[in-house]
Amino acid sequence: MVYEAVAKYVGTGKRPPTLILVYPSEPYVCVSVHRLPGVEVDMDFCRSKGISIVRRQVGGGAVYLDPISNSTT
Fold first, then answer.
1. Local confidence band at 17 (pLDDT 50, 70, 90 cut-offs)
2. Confidence category of residue 73, pLDDT binned at 50, 70, 90
3. Domain boundaries, the chain
């Protein structure tokens, strides 16, 4: 996954600090390798809304990502 590749190369100094912009097609919650999904995330809410929960292999907290709405009001 891109998170691991960026963390690896930035962490070793082979690449400069990097900003990742993510626009997923479906919403999901991304939980770091060091966190417990059942503690960090309301699992029942995610299930009821069809929100996937994925684990990334780098640190940090839990993050909710969703597509940016292109609709105008």
1. very high
2. very low
3. 21-73
